[in-house]
Amino acid sequence: MKAAAPAPRAAGVPKSKSKPKPESRLAMxxxxxxxxxxxxxxxxxxxPELDFRNPFELLVATVLSAQTTDLRVNQTTPALFAAYPTPxxxxxxxxxxxxxxIRPTGFFRAKAKSLLGLSQALRDDFGGEVPxxxxxxxxxxxxxxxxxxxxxxxxxxxPGITVDTHFGRLVRRFKWTExxxxxxxxxxxxxxxxxSEWTMLSHRVVFxxxxxxxxxxxxxxxCPIAPLCPAYGEGETDPEKAKKLLKYEKGGQPGQRLSPxxxxxxxxxxxxxxxxxx
Length: 278
Description:
single chain, mainly alpha
């Protein structure tokens, strides 16, 4: 007996496609660690992009970096630290004079209040020294977990994940987490990577976010980790067009530091008020 022919598909109804198999957690962890290894090859010179010479300068610069660029902070801090080189000096500053110096970083009144408060706390409670413990740092005015982890990781060698806007954007694009809250992001990423990788992972991801994986127009066609990225295609995929979107040393432009590390392959930034070529 001849088998009945299958019923014809209704016009306009697409052929059913099998859904891709969800990525297992183990596969995600392996992919995440591979991305980290490849970013380490792309950015072997990754570093904090704030100029500093000691823990106090890094702490102050990180507080100033809220709602502005690291470049603008780096252009402002030379005059600031010339006037107030120690916590004791800054604690005794005239508020209006401090505000005027840090005005280029924006929100200067609130930032001046934080700098005065943390400097006074360092003077009165910590003998004029920046503490090397998270629980002490977050007690200082204007200092949260992000700032504390920046200082711990880069001034004291204590591993930490720094969840800024770039880091949060990329780890969600990479599908390492779906969390939006910075502390939850930090906890989930810490669980994926060995502690020894936390600080440098933060630098590599932030470097990639600033140079290639931008918020509005990621340069997907120029991205060295595109085959590993679930978000490939959200940005420009044409290689030549994508290349024009690259920033800082990847785009042949100056970086954010006036005094970059010796191994930085790009150009140093210009001081505040200096004329630069368009």
